[in-house]
Amino acid sequence: MTHLMTLNRRAFKVKNHTELGRRIQIFGNRIMNVIVPEYPEYEDTWQQGGCLMFARALQEWAGGETRLAVIRSSRYPEIVQHVVCQLGEDVYADGDGIGTGDEMARKAAEIEFVAGAYLEAADETTDMGEIMDHPALQARLVELMTERLGVFDRGMVEDLGHEVAAPTMR
Prior knowledge:
This protein is α+β, with helices and mostly antiparallel strands. The chain has 7 helices and 7 strands, in the order ββαααββββαβααα. The strands form 2 sheets. The chain has a 5-stranded antiparallel β-sheet with strand order 6-5-4-3-7. A two-stranded antiparallel ribbon has the order 1-2. Helix content is 38%, strand content 21%. Helix 3 crosses helix 5 (135-149). It has one domain (5-163).
């Protein structure tokens, strides 16, 4: 099986195995240096809800040919725990980079401590609850993605299967 990401549970980190995944992860890690000075009210809350804005920004950056998916907990299935953007068939992205649906659910369980994590498609009826939503900040994220990641090209996702080698297991 091809792995798009692997997890380091001890360090609570994600290792991306694709160039696009690494670039999105670096962008996600550094974005706070830009966002906090412009939107200081999000300094302490970005990690508690910025995922929806980030996923919607990824969706817009990708030209809208994508859809959102949510991570839920089997303990509290009515509550959305995390939001990701589906960029292609079994290719999902968030601020940690790119992973398969199973990898995103495993990351939520093992690194973000979501008990019984599972991924499901979202649509306009999905209740995102109290997750932060700020259209101006989302628009700024899209600008920054285009500036720092370049213009999205569908080939970026379609080529992932050829780019990825299964990681060496130790």
